[in-house]
# Entry
Amino acid sequence: MDEQDYKYLILTYQQKIFDILSQFIASEAKVKKLMDINESLSKEVAQQKEELQKSSVKPNKNIKEGDFT
# Structure
C-alpha cells in the first residue's frame, strides 16, 4: 500500500466511525424516549387500577345464590 491508499483507508475508517457513533447515539436517544413512555404508561395503569379498586362494588354477602332466578 502506498501513502494515498493509507489516506483513503483512514478516511474510510473515520467516516464509518462517525456513522456508527451517530447511529448508536440515535438508538440510545430512542431507548431513553421509550423508557420514559413506558414509565409514564406504567404510572397511568397503576393510577387506573387504583381508581378501579376504589370504585368497584363489593358483593353483598346477604344475597343468596337463588335470589336472582
Observations:
- Residues 8-44 form one domain.
